[in-house]
């Protein structure tokens, strides 16, 4: 179940600092020190609105100028996560949590980065150092993932349920919870959780595909009523077809895969190749 769930958001942003003229018309070079930047709110802008690599470069320069500022190290660690450099980020988080200014939220973020690196034991150690009074969505989502990795199913269910109740957008954690149920062979419960996830986010295709997998595992080879595009419908039919074939119902599986090929608005290469292989196998 150790499938770290990875996500990254990036948007381009152009930032410029210009000089200003005094009463005599003299133009002076803008002060680009960290203190002036802080005053302009550029730290938050760089962290949330720019290309991740630009943010990493910015915070790297900032900590080089003022290496004792933990807030700048925190910005660097978060920027490195966004840029996908989890090794570097884990080093920055290690410095942060070992300082007097390290917070419980820092330890939770450190645990998140360690999970991305596959260091589940290290992540668990960080979360164990966070007091139970620190109740946040992210903390419980990570606790659930770690409990899953340890096959502590009762704890995992409790943490997933708590996490889902601490956010207004629980589709992602419900999908993870459903996947956990599916790995345990509890397909009916998984189906309900995937359905709930889609209710909160009708565009979450991962949950739709998982829902179809859970239904296929129960011998349900019809698509449930839900919002889907034509391409999604074709892909879900293909998933159902593969599930049927895996279960030994090759004839039904071929029919579903053929329907997927016919449904897709463009050429569905993967489904077409699978169908050709199945038909060739039957012929032989």
From TrEMBL:
Residues making up the signal peptide according to the UniProt record: 1-23
Keyword Signal in annotation: yes
PROSITE patterns, sorted: PROKAR_LIPOPROTEIN, TPR
Keywords from the UniProt entry: Signal, TPR repeat
InterPro entries noted in UniProt: TPR-like_helical_dom_sf (IPR011990), TPR_rpt (IPR019734)
Residue stretches of each TPR repeat: 171-204
Name of protein: Flp pilus assembly protein TadD, contains TPR repeats
Species classification: Bacteria, Pseudomonadati, Pseudomonadota, Alphaproteobacteria, Rhodobacterales
